[in-house]
Amino acid sequence: MKTRDERIRYVIQHKDGSFINVKGERKDDFMAVTRLTEDEAEVFLTGHYAPDNPEDYHAEPVRITYELGGKEDVQQE
Fold first, then answer.
1. What is the overall mean pLDDT for the chain?
2. Which residues make Cβ contacts (< 8 Å) with residue 38, sequence separation at least 6?
3. β-bridge partners, 8
4. Could you tell me the pTM of the whole model?
5. Is 44 exposed, middle or buried (0-12, 13-18, 19+ CB in 10 A)?
6. Which of these, 59, 62, 29, lies nearest to 44 by C-alpha position?
7. Nearest to 9 by CA among 39, 48, 53, 29
8. Are 6 and 63 contacting, i.e. CB atoms less than 8 angstroms apart?
9. At residue 2, does pLDDT exceed 90?
């Protein structure tokens, strides 16, 4: 039985290190923005709702791990 899975999602990051959500709001924490699939990130950066100066942004990968029944202590920052 599978008890662990990893997924790659993408957040939109500005060249200054900040992130933006799909509403175009700047955030310092990548956990506060929408995580997109690779295709969604590409559409967002090149489509109608792209941020101003889209060349200043890129899709940064985020590895998400799902684990069933993890009972060990997990440190959070």
1. 91
2. 8, 10, 59
3. 63
4. 0.81
5. buried
6. 59
7. 39
8. yes
9. no
DSSP labels for 26-74?
EES-GGGS--B-HHHHHHHHHSTTPPSSGGGEEEEEEEEEEETT--S--
> Look-up: residue for tokens 């993408």?
10
Query: Coil, strand, or helix at residue 66?
Result: strand
What pLDDT is attached to residue 49? 87
Q: What is the residue type of 58? A: H
- pLDDT, residue 77, reads 57
CA pair distance 27, 17, nearest whole angstrom: 10
- Cβ atoms of residues 11 and 64 within 8 Å: no
Question: Which of the four pLDDT bands, split at 50, 70 and 90, describes residue 37?
Answer: very high
- In the block, residue with structure tokens 């990968």: 61
